[in-house]
């Protein structure tokens, strides 16, 4: 998923791991650890949070472009795949593993987590933390897909629900 150099311009949108889609508001020089460095000032669209990402470390930090159409198709494939539910492991260990995937910055990993939690939710009640993670994964996925496809979030959410309901019938 997306291997091109991540050099952004002011006004462009980018994705920051665990936070979602944001807009590059500015590129500013700041002093950090005794050295002047350039930083992307990224405003997360969903929460209005501002994040500073060093330009030289943007890729390492996980800052990336919005996915393209090929990636969208792969996301849909992941959502349709058979889940690999680990309902026999403690919820807190599962939570830790899934949270690492969400924070990885890979939308493929986010789709995996959403699929697993969606299926687990149909088998038993999710813990409070799992419910929050489910909503977080769904929100991150929905927002980026909506941006990538230039669609309203509600339409994307309906598509995701449709994919899951088809899986239940199969």
Give short descriptive properties of this protein:
170 residues, alpha+beta, Thrombin, subunit H, Methane Monooxygenase Hydroxylase, Chain G, domain 1, 2 domains, four-stranded antiparallel β-sheet, 6 helices, 4 strands, globular
Summarize the structure.
The protein contains six helices and four strands.
What does this entry look like structurally?
The protein has a 4-stranded antiparallel β-sheet. It is of the alpha+beta class. It has 2 domains: 13-61, Thrombin, subunit H (Beta Barrel), CATH 2.40.10; 69-169, CarD-like, C-terminal domain (Methane Monooxygenase Hydroxylase, Chain G, domain 1). Helix 3 (91-103) packs antiparallel against helix 4, helix 3 (91-103) packs parallel to helix 5 (128-149) and helix 5 (128-149) crosses helix 6 (153-169). Helix content is 50%, strand content 19%. The two termini are 29 Å apart.
Return residue spans where pLDDT drops below 50 for at least 5 consecutive residues.
1-5
Number of continuous helical runs: 6
Helix content: 40-55%
N→C terminal distance: 29 Å
Instruction: Assign the CATH superfamily of the largest domain.
Output: CarD-like, C-terminal domain
Order of helices and strands: EEEEHHHHHH
CATH C-level label of the largest domain: Mainly Alpha
Sheet-strand content, in percent, reads 15-25%
Shape: globular
Count of folded domains: 2
Secondary structure class reads alpha+beta
What fold name goes in the CATH topology slot of the largest domain? Methane Monooxygenase Hydroxylase, Chain G, domain 1
User: What's the β-strand tally?
Assistant: 4
| Largest sheet report | 4 strands, antiparallel
